[in-house]
Structure formats: structure tokens, C-alpha cells
Amino acid sequence: MNEYGQHPYYMVVEDDEGNSHSVLLYTSNAMEYSTFLLDDGTPALTLRTIGGIIDIHVFLGPTPEETNVQYATMMGYPAFPPYWSLGFHLSRWGYNSTTGVREARERMKAMGIPQDVQTMDIDYMYRQRDFTYDPTNWADMPDLIQELHNDNLRVTLILDPALVIDFDNYPPAQRGKDADVFIKWSDKALVPADQEPGTDDYMVGYVWPDNKTIFPDFLNPDAQAWWINELKLFHDILAYDSIWIDMNEPANFGTNLDKPWNWPPELEPWSLKCPDNALDSPPYPTKMIRVGDNNSNKISDHTICMSANQTDGTTTYLHYDVHSLYGWSETVATFQGLLEIFPGTRPVVLSRSTFPGSGQYAVHWLGDNSADWEHMHMSIVGMLDFNMFGLPMVGADVCGFFNEPDMEMCARWMELGAFYPFSRNHNTLGMQDQDPGVWPEVGAISRDTLLLRYKYLPFLYSLFHKAHMHGNSVVRPLLNVFPNDLTARDVDDQFFWGSSLMIAPVITQGATSRDVYFPEGLWYELRYGVLTATGPITQTVNAPMEFIPLFIRGGAILPWQEPAENTELSKMNAYGLTMALDATGTASGEIFWDGGDGEHVMSEAYMSHLNFAANALNMTIMHGETAVSGLNLETISIYGYPSDPTTITVNGDATGVSWFFDNVIKVLEVYLNVPLSQNFIINFN
């Protein structure tokens, strides 16, 4: 099928030691691929493209994670998301009014479920027109946004690329026409005989609005300037904080069919029809015309015709050649627009369509899934894929977009979704509400699991910093952490935050336990510090409905903060450390903080290294002490500590230090009050 995006990039694990390389076929033309085995059992892959140039890049690793870093180094390191965007996002298509949003928000507050972002889909618009809001059901939308801001929530609004051709009554389209920013037919002779008056040689289609539409050419600098201006004008009307761009492949309904599925029944049938030429009926049109839901048997299925022109201001391109750049180009323009609206901050642009390099600008969700256990499993694979593609800020629609989940599925999906880098619950029009407050059981489970996410956001944030600075993956398959572990290669239902925190969600209906593969090392249960396994071993662990199995790897130190109902509150709370000792009694980690937003200046950001060895914890500050002014370290939990100490001192002073030692599970809890802005040595005797 015609997919949301195109990432013609693959990795090969070459041998039992984990030596790996990866390959990018860098083209924006139509492609297909197939995987198969040779006669001797060797895995093989074929990539076919029907245009562009042969531009192949090979990344030599030699480890799986190093191939990802090398790829990101070439394509551009991922954007550094603001801290608030790592909080929980709530969304749906079908709130239908400001009342629907307020009711969902009140359910969240009543259950004490953390939330940082409220998102609105196209039902807030007037007749599904960009840069408008419904004056009837959403008449008090500016007031709603202010209420959400008063609750420390940010607001994300959706925009689609296609604009209606109602030039006389729709100023954004008229301003776009005045600037000549819309995609055109490549030859005026191709303009249909029934072209609407006033649309000149623009390619006209049909999407969500109840009128025909035209499509901005975001490669065009004039279109970029027009789009940025429209974003600014829109922000003057609705004070949004981030933008979600959807349908940006670009999608078009009913291409080459009798009429779109949502065409007004009172009108004569019509649709965008593509010419029968070498661009829209190429000699090899790729397999997508023969499989999937392609009713037209044309390469332009669900999108606009390939016989269109686009321009970057100096060079004219056929849409046939640059189709897969459409979503990327809209993302770049939107990112730049938000930079101008919110100077000195980090834009958040959520995009459905992506391309190699999109990670420099985009947050991504995995598209229209269903409330289905298999889709829940697939979301783990998709999340790992996009980390490989250099888009680490990724997640799926929690609890499913289509269909309706039952209580158990939504509870389990909320547990998994709490550990997506981009965590958002979203569903479609006509379905029952599925925000976690709908079910008391799901609400309680969501509250506890999201509070755990919020607790460890300082660790997740530091992983995004590494991704932004060095190209590292944020979430990783076991393969990337243990490349020479042959069993780890086959595990696709567990994953890591970084290389220290392993998540093993329950994705099977009715299950109250699951098998977990523990690679080499010591593995402690994250919440309570019980030593669960010494790997390598596969072990069955209990996982009742309210419990997602989480494990910290021996040798790791994870920073955390006391959680709260949003990041505006939690980021001011006291810090703690979770230390898991390895077999040699050592552990290491780091703390990073830069305020959570704004231009990243490494020399001004706080960075400290933590090292525990020989019964002493050393914290060495590298730079940025002022960034953590007023923040203190108040709790240290040490997992696998051998015995109850007799004294604990901070820089030689025992004043203000207390502790509790659990001899049964070998966990030492230390309570103190030490400024993060000062180096320290904590001795345990």
C-alpha cells in the first residue's frame, strides 16, 4: 500500500558476535521491497525503485547501536523535545465540543492522572477548514485553551495540508492563491475540462472539508512563508502550543474512482482523475497497485497525481520524484513557523508522514491502529523501527484508534504506553470515550503507571539529550544492548529505555504473568529493588492487571524526581537516585538538566557524573551548576547492598543523614539533603 512515510533503511547482523552494518537507499521515488531466504538459508532483501538516482550509503557499525548513531550523524541528529512534551498527551477525534474536552479533563483530574498536553482533532474546526474553529460547538474555545493553560497543560491543534477552494469566503486560501503556493499540473494541457473556476492550473482534490481542495507546495519558499504567516495569524485566534500535521503524504480521497467515499450525496459524482501517462501509469508501478486496498489499481491511490509540478524556487520537480518529501517539507515549514511564534523555545510538530531526516523536526505517531492485542504488539516493533530511523520521539495511539477496547486491553495498553517516548491516548469519531478516567480500574492503573513514568522523566530526558547530541537511540531492542546474545535477537516484546531500564509489557489477553528474557547480569525489580534474575535466563514473572514488569540492570544509576500531575510541578521537586549494584558492587550514571526548554547550550546545561565503587558514591559536576539552583538530592535507593552500614557521611559529615536497610531484599534507603549544585562524596561504612 501507499504508506505514511518512506524509510528505505535496513540493518544486517552479520555473525554471532553481533557485528552489523546498515544500508540506506536514499531516494524519494516510489519503492517496494521484499524479504526472502536464499537456498542456503541466508536472509536476503530486494529493494526496487522506479526513479531517482542510485544513492546508497553503507554504515559499518560494527555494533547495531553504532550503525544507528552513524546513520543519524549523516541524516541529522533528532530534535531535542521540551520536557513538557514527555508528559502524557490526551486526544480524540470526537470530543465534538468544548464540553467534551472539559468532561475528559475533569475525569483525569478526579482520578489524579498525570497529563501535560490536551490535543484536539479536526472536529474543532469550522467545516474541517484549517485555521478556523466551529462557532457553535466550540464557540468558547479560546476560554477552554486558557483553562487548560491555567492547569499547566499545553494545547496541540491539528492541521491538514489541503485547503478548500472557497477563495471568496476563506482568506487563507485566497492569500495562498495570491502568493501562488499550490501544487500545479505539470502541463496546462492536463488541467481537467471540469476544473473549478478560479483554480487556474492547480491540482484539485477532495479530503475532509465539504468542498474541493488544493495542496500547498511546501518545497516552495513562497509557500513556506505563506504557511508560517497563517500559523501566526491562527495563533492570534487560538493560543495553541504545538501543531499536529496529519494527512500529509499528501492524502486525497477517491483518486481515480467515481467519487470520494465522503462526497456530498446531493452532488454529481466527481473525483481527481490522473492521466494515463508514464508518470501516473508507469511501466512498473510497484506492487502496491496489486495488493492491499487499492481500488483504482493506480500508483496515485489515496493521494494526488504524479503528473504534478513542485518547485524549490529555482528548480522544478515532478511530484513523481518528490512525492515522499511532502510530509517532510510540511514538517520543516511548520517547525520554522513555531520557532518564529515561540522564539527561544523548542517546537513540537507531530507529523504522520516522515522521511529520512524528519527526526530533526518531527514527533511521530505510528498512524491509524486498532484496539487489537496484535496491534499493541506491533507498536513495540514500530517504536523500535523509528528509533532506528532517527525519530526517537515516537509512540502509538494508546488503546487503539479504531474500534473500542475493553477495560483489560486499555489498562494493559496504558501500561505499555506509559513507556512510549511519545505517550498519547487517542481514538476516532463515533467510538466511546477511552480516556483512562472512563474506567475506575484503568484510571487507577494509569495513574500509578504514569506517575512512575513521570518519576523517571529525568532519566528519559537525559536519553533524549544523548540522542540530540550524538544520535543514540532512546528506546532500544535487546539486540542493541546485547548484540552478541543470540537469544536476545529474537525478543520483540521487551525493550529498553537506553541500556539500563528494561520494560516487559503484558500484551496477551487474560495473562497475569509472562516469560521475560534476562540477558547477562543482575536484574532488579524497579519499584522495590528485589533481585529478580541473574542472566542469561528466561524466567516467568508475575504480572497482575495493575502491574507492568520493569527491571533495572545491575550497574546502573537512574536519576528521578518526585512525580506530580504535570511536569511544570514535578520539575521543581526533589531528586532521588535508584542505584542497582552489579556483581562487583559498582554502579554509574549521570544527571542532566537544562531547564526543560529553550535553545540548548551545553556549557550552560547541568551535567554530573555519578560513580559508586568501594562503598563510596562520587558525584562530579562537569558544568551548569546554576541550572539546578534550589534542587536537592533527598533520597538514594541502593539495590543489592550487602549489609546495614554503621555510618553514612556526606563529604565527611554525618549530619542530616538517615537510612533504612531491608535485610531480606538487600535494599538500602538513604535520606539526606544535598544540593545538586555541589560535588559530593558519600561514604558508606
TrEMBL record:
Record InterPro entries: Gal_mutarotase_sf_dom, GH, Glyco_hydro_31_C, Glyco_hydro_31_TIM, Glyco_hydro_b
Chain ranges of the Glycosyl hydrolase family 31 C-terminal domain: 471-558
Pfam families assigned: Glyco_hydro_31_2nd, Glyco_hydro_31_3rd
The keyword Secreted belongs to this UniProt entry's keyword annotation: no
Coiled coil (residue ranges): none
GO terms classed as biological process: carbohydrate metabolic process
All residue ranges annotated as the Glycoside hydrolase family 31 TIM barrel domain in the record: 78-463
UniProt signal peptide: none
Keywords per UniProt: Glycoprotein, Glycosidase, Hydrolase
GO molecular function (one): carbohydrate binding
Listed PANTHER family: ALPHA-GLUCOSIDASE (PTHR22762), P-TYPE DOMAIN-CONTAINING PROTEIN (PTHR22762:SF133)
Family (UniProt): Belongs to the glycosyl hydrolase 31 family.
The protein, known as: Alpha-glucosidase
